[in-house]
Design a protein that fits this description.
Number of strands: 5
Strand content: 25-35%
Distance between the termini: 19 Å
Order of helices and strands: HHEEEEE
Largest sheet: 5 strands, antiparallel
Radius of gyration: 18 Å
Structural class: alpha+beta
Shape: globular
Number of helices: 2
Strand order of the largest sheet: 4-3-2-1-5
Helix content: 25-40%
């Protein structure tokens, strides 16, 4: 979209543009490391997470943090391989409870 002046933009649009501009500047000043590039490529991909209590969570990878906590969207829980599905929605998985994670390599990706 092209706007002739800032008056045409809503406050949310202005904040979104400002945030996007700051992210571009941050990437220029602090180039992405190979690990960050890999994490970025995983965004919005389907993940399978095995937890210490045996549960399996399958959902869309939305973000992580320095403590390896993971947030999955549209998540379903299985108590065993091939078991009954329980729909959870948005979940935060503490990193200390994650045994393994694998990305679905079938190419399925969700647009945010």
């Amino acid at each position: 979209m092209n706007y002739s002046s800032d008056e045409d933009l809503s406050e949310n649009d202005k904040k979104s543009i400002d945030l996007h501009s700051r992210m571009e500047v941050s990437d220029t000043i602090h180039p992405l490391t190979p690990g960050k590039i890999l994490l970025k490529s995983w965004l919005n991909r389907t993940f399978r997470v095995v937890m210490t209590d045996g549960r399996i969570l399958i959902g869309v990878f939305l973000c992580t943090d320095v403590e390896a906590n993971v947030i999955l969207g549209m998540c379903s829980e299985y108590t065993e391989e091939g078991g009954e599905e329980r729909i959870l929605g948005l979940v935060m998985i503490p990193g200390r409870h994650i045994i393994s994670m694998e990305v679905d390599t079938s190419g399925q990706q969700f647009d945010a």
